[in-house]
UniProtKB/TrEMBL annotation:
Pfam families: DDE_3 (PF13358). Keywords: Coiled coil. Residues 17-169 form the Tc1-like transposase DDE domain. It comes from the Bacteria. Residues 158-185 form a coiled coil. The keyword Chaperone does not apply. Signal peptide: none annotated. This is Transposase. The keyword Methyltransferase does not apply.
Length: 210
């Protein structure tokens, strides 16, 4: 926990950007009947029946200090999908960075092994050497700032029916563009001293010798 909190308090360094990453499942839900748009004196109407079109996963990468985020919508949530996201992050977004300091939870796909199972050894090694891995504690994924950004994504974009993966990509891309234009970020105020007070029960204690 304190490793992450210390990381968040460090000044911005473009050579060592701090990037939070996580993913969430997205249900693809369509309409059986076309909804009726709003009219003067009447709200929009939507039939309660709907059709299911499967599911996909949205991988969200978030650099809080720069107010930047990018989402990749994938049909699945495998180690290969995760490795593809890392390659994009390193080669497309941060090709000049010495290392990307990556914040992520303990999901079984979130490991360097994902790179070696996806790419040839020299390529996997090249990518792995440019990542500094920082994991949240077990049951402590709330310490990953991307969780807050995922909540914003859900509330602002995904609380409605979206029936196919291409439409989902377009809608999320529009949301992403607007958020990046605002340089929207997270005002993180939870520090190591706060943790030592509010989460005192998590710290080891030692009784004084008589």
């Amino acid at each position: 926990m304190e490793d992450l909190l210390d990381l968040y308090m460090q000044p911005y360094d473009e050579a060592y950007p701090v990037v939070c990453i996580d993913e969430r499942p997205c249900q693809l839900i369509g309409h059986l009947q076309s909804p009726e748009p709003p009219r003067p004196g009447r709200l929009a109407r939507e039939d309660t029946e709907f059709s299911r079109h499967g599911a996909c996963s949205t991988f969200l990468m978030f650099e809080p200090q720069a107010g930047w985020r990018h989402a990749l919508v994938k049909a699945t949530r495998t180690k290969r999908d995760f490795a593809d996201c890392l390659k994009y992050l390193l080669d497309e977004k941060y090709p000049q960075a010495s290392k990307v300091r990556l914040v992520l939870d303990n999901l079984n796909t979130h490991t360097p092994a994902a790179l070696y199972e996806t790419f040839a050894f020299p390529e996997a090694l090249r990518l792995a050497k440019r990542i500094e891995w920082h994991y949240t504690p077990l049951h402590g994924s709330w310490l990953n700032m991307v969780e807050i950004e995922l909540s914003v994504l859900v509330n602002q974009c995904l609380k409605r029916r979206i029936g196919d993966i291409e439409q989902l990509r377009q809608e999320i891309a529009a949301w992403e563009q607007a958020r990046n234009a605002q340089r929207a970020t997270v005002q993180w105020r939870f520090t190591p001293p706060d943790a030592r007070i509010k989460l005192k029960h998590l710290y080891p204690s030692r009784e004084e010798a008589p």
